[in-house]
Every structure is written in structure tokens, then in C-alpha cells.
Amino acid sequence: MSFHGGNIYDYNNIIYDFSANINPAGVPESFKKALRDNMDVFARYPDTEYRALVRSIKDYLSLDDDAYVLPGNGAVDLIYSILDSMDYNKLFTMGPTFSEYRKAAIKYNIRYEEVFCYNHDFSKIDIELFLNIVEERSIIILCNPNNPTGFLIDIATLAYIAAQLNEKNSILIIDEAFIEFTDDYPHSSFLSKMYDFGNVVLIRAATKFFGMPGIRLGYAITCNRAIWERIKKIQQPWSVNAAAVIAGSCIFGDKDYISKSHEWIKEERLYLYNELSNLKGLEVYSSKANFHLLKITEKSMDAYKLRNELVKHGILIRTPDGFSYLTSNHFRLAVLDRKANSFLLSVLYEVLL
Amino acid sequence: MSFHGGNIYDYNNIIYDFSANINPAGVPESFKKALRDNMDVFARYPDTEYRALVRSIKDYLSLDDDAYVLPGNGAVDLIYSILDSMDYNKLFTMGPTFSEYRKAAIKYNIRYEEVFCYNHDFSKIDIELFLNIVEERSIIILCNPNNPTGFLIDIATLAYIAAQLNEKNSILIIDEAFIEFTDDYPHSSFLSKMYDFGNVVLIRAATKFFGMPGIRLGYAITCNRAIWERIKKIQQPWSVNAAAVIAGSCIFGDKDYISKSHEWIKEERLYLYNELSNLKGLEVYSSKANFHLLKITEKSMDAYKLRNELVKHGILIRTPDGFSYLTSNHFRLAVLDRKANSFLLSVLYEVLL
């Protein structure tokens, strides 16, 4: 059983999908044009080495020559490939977090421990608590900012964690699927510090920030060539499709889309947070990402009842299925555009009255 | 190291790619139109259950309700997923055959044995020899028609093999990636007999016959629900991208593309075979697929020298790397359209003179 947002296919009337954390700006026009102009690209096998795609990613992130990039069939594919390629049998994460880490660990017979290190309102984490629990020769995955809490660990703290984990002969995977939605991006990314740590792998999803999860494009970055080679070796040939390669050739250079998206998320995250905070019966947690975790405090309501009420209005929210340490009162909302956010707020106001 | 055709990316001048076995009719117009009209589909996660896609495939193949379909990120993804999902530790194939079977077996610590059962000119196979070698509780993969020999096992023989393997508590995977290129398709497919065998899984590549390997769409079919569930359980979420889902919604109903492709392959396979047979210094083996295996009999030439000569003319051929039981004198040629085939023949005539 897999639990994810975006499952609009179970319903036939969803207009506003707040369950999937995707940029509502949608598919970039630059990509649509590039794809329209290059439809015949599907007639060829993609380059098994994905040389042009890797170059685009390296340009986008201004990577040095000693950074190694590996594209995959979405970020999830890379999570699986990384766990599959490593000879470690313990995986530690900070919960609640993305459920695919657990699923991938189970698949590869890796012991999975999801440590709760948050305070009561998900505004702080206890790093030492976490590091004390982590064992020698482990893999650690930190989703940063974290899904579903929206908590962002600053890069100085991440550097401290990476160094401590290095002492424990452990590998740190930082899943930056949502990092481009943070206000101080690119400074919030661990990329600039990555070069100091041979035990770190970053994962990025190209397609959440660029509004097209359907294209399936993720990539891993590390400065550890041996790790890169191990992952590469176990990947299937042609795992990234030709449309994703086209996307790589244009979206990273779409400065207009990128700057408008940064403006939108800065404004709308705050707007939605403030307005949600004003609603009775809800507690909303502060988030650095493009979504908010909330808790229903109204006794007669829970996330599933609320979901059912909102579906009647064409709105889908993310119920807490699959997340550790959440209750049936928790749910997650993506930040969408003003029209969608306003509509959601008006319906919530009505339903929670 | 992976060895495959279609690696035009190592060169910068390939005009005619005879190394990849793809329908030269190219990307169907029906797909181009559907994709142009549905660019926003990338803005959503695909349905993790791929319900509409499965329905399209079932319609295309007129499948009964008791046939279970599983889409994957290309046929290769399904080969890996099937081996990963099974509790068998031996894999038998008939060599020479597709190198990913071996690679997948190695990945999952499955003992791999590629049995040579052909006669001297790849026109017959010794089934009993093969069955005698196959052990209890094994997986058997037969590529039908086979890559690179083009040999087609008839469905009565396949039924006999399936029954014998059932006695041995073994699973038969029939990789029908090239079956739609055979002259008597759909009668050449094991599909109609599949319902009698709970130990059979068929694999199809949607995108060789429909001229678009870049889209990454394969599917597995079985009437064994337990096998289907096992494979499904270990698949990653969203492994099939949104463009492939769009393809599934239109290409299978593109009767014009399908009938023209059947006419083309029937005519061009024979044309190319006859013309190649007339060339000095070459032995060409009979094939039921959209490619020919050849052997260079001219002493001063081998497949690598020939490849280098042909590359000068913008032609890429498939050298024997990665194939068992072939020598450096063997190579493979896809059947392309008349213009390409004629050009190839004229250059071959010149080079082999």
C-alpha cells in the first residue's frame, strides 16, 4: 500500500488539488514549446549516459567539475537506487517524514528507524537526541525542508550533522525535493557545503518546483565518485524518458518561471498561513516549504471527515495516511495560487464553523 | 557496462541508425496531436494505479477480465521488477539473447545460464536440449522473436515448453518486445494461449513497434493474480511518466499507423534480406523480426572495422558486444525504410567490395 498526495484519480470532481505539493504555475511554457518543437525525440533511445541532461543540471546549479550528477526516473527512483546500491543495513530518518523512505528500506531489507525529534509544534528539532540514536555504519535520510512538517534545517546544522555522521562511518542523504520553494534559496541548499563532505548525497526533484511531476525527473548529486559509480551501476538503462530530457534542456534556464515562482511562494505561503491561523478549530504549523501541516482541534471533526466535506467542493487535502507520529487530526495542504487558496479558505470557514 | 543499440550519442554524424530495432515510421501523428493537446497532463502526478492506461492496453489486446496488466518504465523495467519480485534463484535463457536478462540476474543474485540450442544458421532450436538443462524452480526468459537472432518459436511449441516448465515448478517469461513486427501477428503471440498457463508472464514493449523508445512504456500480462500482485508490490510509485500514459490513450487505436507498419515490415524485411544475401562477404540469417543478424565471411573484415567504415557514411550498426555465442564477425541490422535500406546496401556493397 502506498500513501501519497495527488491521488485525484479516486474522485471525478477535484478542481483544487491541495494534496500534492506542486507549483501551481503549472507546466512551463518554455517546456511546452521545446516539446512541441522536438516531438521526434521520442523516436530515439535516450542517451544511456544522459550527457546533455547532466550538463544542463550542472549549469543550473553552477556545479564544480568534482560534483557528480545522476538523473533518475523521479526523486523516488533515486531514493530506491541509492538504498539498493549501498552496503548498509540501517536507515534512520526524522519522523514524521516521506513514507517512501520506509517503503524503500523494507524492500531492500534495511532496518528502518524513524526518530521523533520535534518539539510540540514542529518548530524545533533535537539534533543530539537524533545523533545519539543513530548507529555506526548507517544511512540517514533527511528531507529538507521536511515533508510533511515544512521544517528546514539550516546548512550550518546540516554540516555539523554530516561531520558527526562521518565520525560514525555513516552516509547522509539530503532530500532537497522542496528546497527551491524556500525563501532563501539557493542559500538554504546544502550544495555549497557538499564539497566538504564525501559522505553526503543530495537528491533533487526537478519537477515539483517546475510544476510537472508527470514528467518524472529527479537527480542525485555527490562529490564522492565511488558512491556515484555504485548508484549508476545498479540503475536500469534509459530510466529517464525523452520528455524529461527535453525538460532538462529548457526549464533550468527559464528565469521568468523561476523568479515568478519564488515571488509567488513567498507571498502565498505567508498569506495562507496567516489566514489559516485565523480560522477557528485549526492549528497551523510554520513551514518553509510549499505546504502546511495542520491539526484539527475541533472535537467533532477529523482529517478524514474534513477531506470528505472538502471533496464535495472539489477540494482534495492530504490525510495523514502513511505518516508516522501524526494523528487522524493532522492533514497537509499545498500552497496553491491565490484563487485556489481563497476558495479553500472560504470553504474551510464554512465547514469548520 | 551496458551494451545496446541506439547509442548514436557517441557519434555526431549518424543519419541512419541501424543499431536500434525501432519502427522507422517514427512517432505516430496521433500521439503528437494528443500530446500537443494535453501538455498540462505533466502538471499532475500520474495515477499510481494507471487505471486508464491498463484499460487501453486491455482493449488493444482484447484481454479477458482474468488477464492482469502491469505497466512499467519500458520493458526493461519490467524484466528487473519481475526478477526482483520472484523467489527463484536460477534464470535460464536461450543464447545469444538480450543482455539485460543477464544484467538483471546478476543484480538480484540469481544464477544465470544462457543455453545455446541453435543449429549452425540459427534456423532451428533444440527444445529438448534446453528443457533438459533447465532445473526445478527456475525462471526462464524467452525473447520471442529473439534478439539478435530473429528466431520465432511458434505458440504450439511455447505451450509445450510452458507445460514442461510447469512440471518443473518453473516460471516462463515470454518477452514479446518484437512480436508485433512478425508477419502473422497477432497469431504469433502467446497471448491467446496464456490463459491456460498460470506460470507464464508476457512482456511487451509498447514503443518499438510504435516508433518511440524515448517514451518508456512497457507492460507485463499474466493471468496469475498472485504473480501480478508480487510484481506490483515492488514497483516504485509513478514509474510510468505522463507522456507514456498519453501514448497509451491513442497509439493502440491508431489503425492507420499499425496497418502501414505491418505492410512496411513484411516488404522491407524480405527486400533487405534478399539484397543482403546477394552481397559478397556476408552471411545473413533468416529473421521473423524487424532486424537481421549477419556474419562477415570476408577474412580481412570484422564487425568493428565494418562499423567504423559505415560510421563514415553516417550509418550505425550493432556490433556484437554483450551477446553470448557471437563472434567479432557478427553484427545486427535493423530493418529501416526503403531509402535507408537502399543507402545501407549501396555503402555495404562499396565497403565489402
TrEMBL record, chains A, B:
<feature type="domain" description="Aminotransferase class I/classII large">
    <location>
        <begin position="15"/>
        <end position="341"/>
    </location>
</feature>
<dbReference type="InterPro" id="IPR015424">
    <property type="entry name" value="PyrdxlP-dep_Trfase"/>
</dbReference>
<dbReference type="InterPro" id="IPR015422">
    <property type="entry name" value="PyrdxlP-dep_Trfase_small"/>
</dbReference>
<dbReference type="GO" id="GO:0003824">
    <property type="term" value="F:catalytic activity"/>
</dbReference>
<keyword id="KW-0663">Pyridoxal phosphate</keyword>
<dbReference type="Pfam" id="PF00155">
    <property type="entry name" value="Aminotran_1_2"/>
</dbReference>
<dbReference type="InterPro" id="IPR004839">
    <property type="entry name" value="Aminotransferase_I/II_large"/>
</dbReference>
<protein>
    <submittedName>
        <fullName>L-threonine O-3-phosphate decarboxylase</fullName>
    </submittedName>
</protein>
<dbReference type="GO" id="GO:0030170">
    <property type="term" value="F:pyridoxal phosphate binding"/>
</dbReference>
<dbReference type="InterPro" id="IPR015421">
    <property type="entry name" value="PyrdxlP-dep_Trfase_major"/>
</dbReference>
